C-alpha cells in the first residue's frame, strides 16, 4: 500500500478557542496534543475571578472587561453567562484555522484502546476536500483505505474545500433536555469509524463542543448568537451558527464534514436547568428550520460577510413575528459583522488587541 | 376584597382532582361539561382515557372544540415493535453461476427461514444446483418468456437484471437481494452478520430524510435524536430502500479498482443513516432491501449498457434504478437508508479487463447524475407507477438526444410499469 504522508501539525496556523467559567484542568489530559498550539481562552462570568491555566501553554485570555474594552458598544453582540461568548475568540484570532472544545471534554479512546488525537483528525478532515453534491456510500472517499464507489461521477471527484469539521462525543451524548429527562442513563458507546460530508441543501444540528473550521473561509458566519444573561434562550448558540454556516457554505460551494473525531464528554448538565434554557428554542426551531430550509441568497453575495448580512436582513423580515428576540438577534448579527471587519480588516495588518501571555 | 370562588368552580376543582375515577360525563349540563374540559386542558390532565370520556358524551360543543384544537387519538404507536413475519419477506437471488451450493450453504442460517426466489440468468445455459432444506421457487428463461412474451421487449432480464423478474413475480412486502458472489461478513466483534435481519430492521424503522441526525439512525438502540433536532420531524417517514455495504471487494468502478488493485475494504462502519432528501447517491445492487409495496415499480431494469457484462464493473443498471427510487422516495415522502448491513464480497473478475467495457458506463454517469439531481415530479404523480412514467418521459425528452442507451431506458421504464400492473393484478386475482 502506498505510504501515508504524516498530517501537518499546522501549529502556527491554528488557534484553539476555549470558553470557560471554572478552570482549565482538563488541559492536562490534552497536553500531548495541544501544547504546540496557541490557545485563546474566553473567560465567561465574573471577570474578577482568576482562571488558572496549566503551566507550559502559550495562551491569551479575555474576560468580560477585555471584551467590553476591545469592542466598545459592539460588545453587546457577545453573549454573557453562556459559552456562546467563545465566538469572541474566533474574532480576535489571527490564524487560518480554529479548533474549539468545551472544558468538560477529554481525550477518548478508539476501539483498540489507543488515545484519539482529535485535533489531528480534524486537520485531516479540513485539509481534504468535501463532497456535498453526491453522497458517497463509503463515506469520506479521501480517507485511507477507501475511495469513491462505482457510479460516482468523475467530474465530482475533485470535491470542494472543507470549511467545517464537526466532531462527535462518546459517553454523555449531546441530547436536548426532554431527551435527557427521559433517558438520563443513556451513554454513547458506539464508535462509528466514519467521516462524511453533509449533502448540499441539508441542515444539521451543529454542536460546538468539538468543532474545527477554516476561519479564512467561513469565520464570519460562526456567530454564536445572543444567549444567556438577559436573553430568552440558551443552548441554541451553536445550533444557530450551524444553520447560518450551512446555508452560506451551500451558497458558496464549501463543504461541511461530520463524524470522527470523538472526544470523551464527561459532564451531563442539569436537565432541568437545560429545559428552562431550551424551552422557547424547542418551539421556535419549528419556525426557524423552515426559514433556513427556504433561505435563498442572491448570487451577488460572494463573500461570507455579504451572505451573513443578507441573512440578517431575512431573519429580521421573516422571523420577527415569531418573537421580538429575532429582531434583536438580527441586529446583533449585523453588529457582529461590523466588529469582525473592524478587527479583521482585509489586506492590512491585523489590529493589535494583544492579551498575549507567553509561556 | 377578592371575590370568593363560586360553588361551580369549587365543584369543578374537585371533579378535576377525581377525574380518573369518573366513568361517565354525559349527565353533566353542557356549560359545566365545557368548563370541565377547558379546565382539564389547562391542568394538563387530558389523557387518552379522559379524552374518550368527553367524546363519549356526544355533545356537539365538546366535539367541535376537540376538532378545532386538532386533538387526536394516537391510534398506532410511533415505533412498531419489530416482529419479522417470515411470510412478509422474499429473498431474491439472481443466479449468474450454475452451482449455488456453497453460496446457499454459507447463507443457510440466515436464509432458511424465508422463501427464496431464484432467477437464473437467461444467458446461463445448464441446470442450477441448489442444496436442499430451503423453500424456494426457481425461474428460468422459459418462465420469463411466458410472463413477458417472447417477442423482443425493451425490458431485458439478462445478467444482473434477471433478479428484477423476481421482484416482479413476488407478492411479499419486503424484498432482500444479494449478489451470488457474496457471503455473510463478520462485524467488529467477530460475529456473523445477519444481513437480512438488518435490512428488515432498516425497512421497518422510520427514516429521517428532512434533517440530518449527527448520531446517525436515531431509532437504533443506545442512541437518539440530538439537541437541535426539530421535534416535529422526530416521527420520521417510511423507509423504502435499504442500501447495504461490502467488506473485502468494495463496489468500486473498474478504473478505481484497476488503479488500486490491492485495495480492499476492511473498515466496518457501525452506522445506518438516512440519505437526506434531494441528495442523490449511487445505489449498489450487490446488497439491498426494499419495500416492494412502496417502491417496487420504481426498481426499474432499464439502463443497459451496450456492452453490459457479467461483472458488476461492467454494469450500471443498479445505479440507474437506485436513483429512480431515490427521486421517487423524495417526491412521495419516503426515506432511503445506507450503511449496515455488510456482506463479504468474494474475489471475482479482473478490473483491467472490465475497464475496457465499463468505460462507457463511467462516461454516461456524467449525464445521468445531473439529470436525476434536477428531476422534479409533478403534484399529480402520487404512486410509484405514475412517477416512473413521468420520469420515462423526461428521460426521453432530455437524455435521448445524447445516446441511444437512453431511448432504450425510457422505453424499458414504460414497458416495466405495464408489466408490473399486469403481473400484480394477475397475482392478486389468483390469490383472491
UniProtKB/TrEMBL annotation, chain A:
Catalysed transformations (reactions): UDP-beta-L-arabinofuranose = UDP-beta-L-arabinopyranose
Keyword Isomerase among record annotations: yes
The EC number(s) this enzyme carries: 5.4.99.30
Organism: Coffea arabica
Compartment annotation: Golgi apparatus
Enzyme superclass (EC): isomerase
Pfam families: RGP
Similarity comment: Belongs to the RGP family.
Keyword Glycoprotein carried by entry: yes
Biological role stated in the UniProt entry: Probable UDP-L-arabinose mutase involved in the biosynthesis of cell wall non-cellulosic polysaccharides.
Protein name: UDP-arabinopyranose mutase
Record key words, sorted: Cell wall biogenesis/degradation, Glycoprotein, Golgi apparatus, Isomerase
Automatic annotation (TrEMBL), chain B:
Record keyword Cell wall biogenesis/degradation present: yes
Annotated Pfam families: RGP
Top-rank taxon, per record: Eukaryota
Transmembrane segments: none
Coiled coil: none
Keywords assigned by UniProt, alphabetized: Cell wall biogenesis/degradation, Golgi apparatus
InterPro entries in alphabetical order: RGP_fam (IPR037595)
Compartments in which it is found: Golgi apparatus
Protein's UniProt keywords contain Cytoplasm: no
Family: Belongs to the RGP family.
PANTHER family: UDP-ARABINOPYRANOSE MUTASE 5-RELATED, UDP-ARABINOSE MUTASE
Protein name: Probable UDP-arabinopyranose mutase 5 isoform X2
Organism: Coffea arabica
Gene giving rise to this polypeptide: LOC113710214
Amino acid at each position: 500500500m502506498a505510504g501515508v504522508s504524516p498530517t501537518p501539525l499546522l501549529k502556527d496556523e491554528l488557534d484553539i478557542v476555549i470558553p470557560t467559567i471554572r478552570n482549565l484542568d482538563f488541559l492536562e489530559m490534552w497536553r500531548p496534543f495541544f501544547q504546540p498550539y496557541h490557545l485563546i481562552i474566553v473567560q465567561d462570568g465574573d471577570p474578577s475571578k482568576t482562571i488558572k491555566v496549566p503551566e507550559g501553554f502559550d495562551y491569551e485570555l479575555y474576560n468580560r472587561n477585555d471584551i467590553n474594552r476591545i469592542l466598545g458598544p459592539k460588545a453587546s453582540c457577545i453573549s454573557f453567562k453562556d459559552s456562546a461568548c467563545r465566538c469572541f475568540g474566533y474574532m480576535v484570532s489571527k490564524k487560518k484555522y480554529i479548533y474549539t472544545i468545551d472544558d468538560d471534554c477529554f481525550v477518548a479512546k478508539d476501539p483498540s484502546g489507543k488515545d484519539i488525537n482529535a485535533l489531528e483528525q480534524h486537520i485531516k478532515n479540513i485539509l481534504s476536500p468535501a463532497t456535498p453534491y453526491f453522497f458517497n456510500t463509503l463515506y469520506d472517499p479521501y480517507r485511507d483505505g477507501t475511495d469513491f464507489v462505482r457510479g460516482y461521477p468523475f467530474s465530482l471527484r475533485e470535491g470542494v474545500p472543507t470549511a467545517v469539521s464537526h466532531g462527535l462525543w462518546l459517553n454523555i451524548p449531546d441530547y436536548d433536555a426532554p431527551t435527557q429527562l427521559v433517558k438520563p442513563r443513556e451513554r454513547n458507546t458506539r464508535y462509528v469509524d466514519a467521516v462524511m460530508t453533509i449533502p448540499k441543501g441539508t441542515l444539521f444540528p451543529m454542536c460546538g463542543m468539538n468543532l474545527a473550521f477554516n476561519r479564512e473561509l467561513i469565520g464570519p458566519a460562526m456567530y454564536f448568537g445572543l444567549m444567556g444573561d438577559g436573553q430568552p434562550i440558551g443552548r441554541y448558540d451553536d445550533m444557530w451558527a450551524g444553520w447560518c454556516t450551512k446555508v452560506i457554505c451551500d451558497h458558496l460551494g464549501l463543504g461541511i464534514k461530520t463524524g470522527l473525531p470523538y472526544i470523551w464528554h464527561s459532564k451531563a448538565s442539569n436537565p432541568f436547568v437545560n429545559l428552562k434554557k431550551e424551552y422557547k428554542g424547542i418551539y421556535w426551531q419549528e419556525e426557524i428550520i423552515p426559514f433556513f430550509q427556504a433561505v435563498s441568497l442572491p448570487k451577488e453575495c460572494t463573500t461570507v460577510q455579504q451572505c451573513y448580512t443578507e441573512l440578517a436582513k431575512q431573519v429580521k423580515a421573516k422571523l420577527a413575528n415569531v418573537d421580538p428576540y429575532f429582531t434583536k438577534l438580527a441586529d446583533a448579527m449585523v453588529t457582529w459583522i461590523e466588529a469582525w471587519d473592524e478587527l479583521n480588516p482585509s489586506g492590512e495588518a491585523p489590529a493589535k488587541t494583544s492579551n498575549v501571555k507567553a509561556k | 376584597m377578592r371575590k370568593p370562588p363560586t360553588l361551580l368552580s369549587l365543584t369543578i376543582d374537585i371533579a378535576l382532582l377525581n377525574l380518573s375515577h369518573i366513568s361517565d360525563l354525559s349527565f353533566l349540563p353542557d356549560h359545566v361539561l365545557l368548563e370541565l374540559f377547558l379546565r382539564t386542558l389547562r391542568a394538563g390532565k387530558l389523557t387518552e382515557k379522559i379524552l374518550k370520556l368527553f367524546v363519549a358524551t356526544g355533545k356537539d360543543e365538546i366535539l367541535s372544540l376537540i376538532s378545532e384544537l386538532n386533538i387526536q387519538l394516537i391510534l398506532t404507536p410511533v415505533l412498531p415493535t419489530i416482529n419479522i413475519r417470515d411470510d412478509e419477506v422474499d429473498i431474491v437471488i439472481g443466479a449468474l453461476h450454475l452451482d449455488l451450493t456453497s453460496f446457499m450453504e454459507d447463507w443457510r442460517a440466515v436464509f432458511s427461514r424465508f422463501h427464496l426466489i431464484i432467477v437464473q440468468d437467461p444467458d446461463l445455459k445448464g441446470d442450477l444446483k441448489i442444496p436442499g432444506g430451503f423453500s424456494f421457487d426457481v425461474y428460468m428463461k422459459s418462465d420469463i418468456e411466458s410472463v413477458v412474451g417472447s417477442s423482443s421487449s425493451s425490458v431485458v432480464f439478462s445478467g444482473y437484471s434477471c433478479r428484477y423478474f423476481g421482484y416482479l413475480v413476488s407478492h411479499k412486502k419486503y424484498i432482500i437481494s444479494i449478489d451470488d458472489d457474496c457471503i455473510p461478513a463478520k462485524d467488529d466483534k467477530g460475529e456473523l452478520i445477519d444481513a437480512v435481519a438488518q435490512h428488515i430492521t432498516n425497512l421497518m424503522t422510520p427514516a429521517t430524510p428532512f434533517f440530518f441526525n449527527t448520531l446517525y439512525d436515531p431509532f437504533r438502540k443506545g442512541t437518539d435524536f440530538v439537541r437541535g433536532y426539530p421535534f416535529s420531524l422526530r416521527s420520521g417517514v417510511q423507509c423504502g430502500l435499504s442500501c447495504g455495504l461490502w467488506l473485502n471487494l468494495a463496489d468500486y468502478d473498474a478504473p478505481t479498482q484497476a488503479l488500486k488493485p490491492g485495495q480492499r475494504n476492511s473498515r466496518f462502519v457501525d452506522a445506518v443513516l438516512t440519505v437526506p432528501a434531494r441528495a442523490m447517491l449511487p445505489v449498489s445492487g450487490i446488497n439491498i432491501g426494499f419495500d416492494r409495496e412502496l417502491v417496487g415499480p420504481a426498481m426499474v431494469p432499464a439502463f443497459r449498457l451496450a456492452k453490459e457484462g457479467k461483472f458488476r464493473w461492467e454494469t450500471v443498471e443498479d445505479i440507474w434504478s437506485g436513483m429512480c427510487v431515490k427521486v421517487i422516495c423524495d417526491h412521495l415522502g419516503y426515506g432511503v437508508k445506507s450503511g449496515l448491513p455488510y456482506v463479504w464480497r468474494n474475489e471475482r473478475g479482473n478490473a483491467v479487463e472490465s475497464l475496457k467495457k465499463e468505460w462507457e458506463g463511467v462516461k454516461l454517469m456524467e449525464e445521468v447524475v445531473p439529470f436525476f439531481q434536477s428531476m422534479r415530479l409533478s403534484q399529480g404523480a402520487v404512486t410509484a407507477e405514475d412517477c416512473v412514467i413521468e420520469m420515462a418521459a423526461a428521460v426521453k425528452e432530455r437524455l435521448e438526444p445524447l445516446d441511444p442507451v437512453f431511448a432504450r431506458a425510457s422505453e424499458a421504464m414504460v414497458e416495466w410499469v405495464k408489466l408490473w400492473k399486469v403481473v400484480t393484478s394477475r397475482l392478486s386475482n389468483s390469490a383472491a
